[in-house]
Structure formats: C-alpha cells, structure tokens
Amino acid sequence: MRVSAVISKIKESWWLKKWDKILLLVVFILFFLWYPGQNYYSTARFGGGLKLWNQLSIRPTPAPYPVNRTGFYPINELSATSVIVQDAVSGVYLFRRASTMQLPPASTTKIVSALVVLDSMSLDDVVTVGELKNNGQTIGLVKGEKITVENLLYGMLIQSGNDAGYALANAYPGGLNAFIVAMNKKAQDLHLQMSHFTNPVGYDDPSHYMTAEDLARLADVALENKILAKMVAIPQITISDVTHTYFHKLSNVNQLLGKIPGVAGIKTGWTEEAGENLVTLVERGSRRIIIVVLHSRDRFGDTIRLIDWVFGNYEWQDFKAP
C-alpha cells in the first residue's frame, strides 16, 4: 500500500472517532460568538450610561482643599527637628520637615498604648496595682490599689503617668511582654511602617522610635475613638480607686489646652534623648489640623507658631463635582 493511502486511512479513522467531540466544540464556539452574554462589557451602552450618570442625585463631595494663598512657609521659625502639619479632613500635608526621620517619641507612645488597652479591656475592668514603675512622670499610684481601667487611662493620657501606663500593660492578658507585642502589631495594622516599640510609656531605647508622619496617622486614628478624644482634651480631673481611699488629682501636661482657641489635645512627650515632643489637634469651625513636633527645644512655642501660620496663610477652596 502506498504511503499516501496509509495516511489518508489514518485521517479518516481519526475523524470518525472524534466527530462527536468536534461537533460539540463547534457548537460551543458558535454559541458564544452569536449569543449576547450577560456581562458588563457586552451590554454596556456608553452614551446612555453617561446620560444616566448625569441624572443621578448622588455626587461625590470632595473635602475643601487647603491652599496657601501667601506662599509663606515657617522654615526658619521652628526649633523642632521633625515637623508635620496635616489637614485632618482632606488628609493634605500643609508642611513637612524631616517627617520620616525615626526619633524617640517619649510619652507620645502612650497613644498607641491606649489603643491597645481599649482593644482588650473594658473601661470598668479593675486593675490591682503591682510593682510600681516610678521613673519620670507619675500620678502617685499605691501598690495594692484597685483602680479601673478608665481611671488609669485618664492618668496615663492626662498627666502622662508612667505608673498608670505600666499598671495597664501588666494587667494585659499575657502581661507586659504580650502588651509590647500587641503594640507593634497595632503599629503594623495601622501601617505605621517606620515605628517600633519596646515599652508602653516611651522610655528611651535605641529600638523604640516613631516618625512625625506615623504619629500624625496614629493621632488621626485615635481621635476616631470618642473615649480617647474626650480624655485627651481634659485640662484636669480627679480620679480615685474603687474604694475611694486613694485620690489622684490630674493636670494635663499640655499647656495649650484652654489657652489657644481650638486646641483639643492630644499628647505631650519628653525625655533627655527625645527632647520636647507634642502632638496637637486644633479644631476651628470645620477645620481640623493635626500638628506634630519632635525633638523640639520649645514644643509649645513651635506649635503656636504653626497654628498661627496655618490659619493666617491658608484658605480652603470648595470643589464641585462635574
């Protein structure tokens, strides 16, 4: 038999064996070529779609955008090494200086500690004060004192009590070490990529650091919590243990509260290595400004100058959706 005849025989045999599958494939292809599929790309009509969009009553509402109408920036008027000024409503940075430099945050650390506490404890939980950590600022806790989580938060945030911060951290499920792990986990969850913590109150440590940008982000998140937003704005308060045996009169370390219009917190910080730190919220009308100054020689003066600069040089422009 000739080679061509053999090949022809094989082909004929293959078609006979596969004809049903080939027919099914052809039908399948023709179906999708001619039948209009029910998906966006085959049914969308752009002309009609645009008309429909114009008829919608819902429109995105952009936040008023801050514009520096003078072009002036306080470059030579600040003592702080690292600075950030942010419009909290639009998220726009109004001013930055070395805002990604990792620096000791000192007691501004207590903002993240407060968030960790509220993640796992109730305000009315009672903590028995154990071994005291009395280095730096304290509220005068007594060993064996039984006091609520709420009052310890007041002590940690208003008077910046290190003893209150450690009492909360030691009461955390798993103890102090677990608390520090939770602090760093919280930093990761909040995308504070340039921050790391080794203690709950901000003692100096080479591995304990934050940036001004991370602190601004942290402050913005913390202020969404109504409990914390209320606490950090209180100038003074007196708290007690659950038996009303021990009383602690607390005064806010932030000297701008009640002095500068619109200042509503948030947290001070100071150590020899960190210098003077301050995280501030200013609310005036519909404007919300977050200011962070780190490693300053005059944190309150720097912040006042920045507040005056913002409201003396910026205006907010409204943009209408098309």
Q: Largest sheet, if any?
A: 5 strands, antiparallel
Q: What is the tally of beta strands? A: 11
Name the quaternary structure.
Answer: single chain
- Shape descriptor: globular
What radius of gyration results from the CA coordinates? 31 Å
Q: Strand order across the biggest sheet?
A: 3-2-10-9-8
**Number of spatially distinct domains:** 2
SSE sequence, one letter per element: HHHEEEHEEHHHHHEEEEEHE
Topology summary:
Blueprint: H1 3-34, H2 40-43, H3 46-55, E1 65-68, E2 82-87, E3 93-97, H4 110-120, E4 126-128, E5 146-148, H5 149-157, H6 162-171, H7 175-189, H8 212-222, H9 226-231, E6 236-240, E7 247-251, E8 263-271, E9 275-284, E10 287-296, H10 299-313, E11 314-317
Antiparallel strand pairs: 1-11, 2-3, 2-10, 4-5, 6-7, 8-9, 9-10
Helix pairs in contact: 4-5, 4-7, 5-6, 6-7
In short:
Helix content is 38%, strand content 20%.
Describe this protein's structure.
- By secondary structure, the protein is α+β, with helices and mostly antiparallel strands.
- The protein has two domains: 3-55, no CATH class; 65-317, Beta-lactamase (3-Layer(aba) Sandwich), CATH 3.40.710.
- The protein contains ten helices and eleven strands.
- It has helices at 3-34, 40-43, 46-55, 110-120, 149-157, 162-171, 175-189, 212-222, 226-231, 299-313; strands spanning 65-68, 82-87, 93-97, 126-128, 146-148, 236-240, 247-251, 263-271, 275-284, 287-296, 314-317.
- Helix 4 (110-120) runs antiparallel to helix 5 (149-157).
Jot down its keywords.
single chain, 322 residues, alpha+beta, Beta-lactamase, 2 domains, five-stranded antiparallel sheet, two-stranded antiparallel ribbon, 11 strands, globular
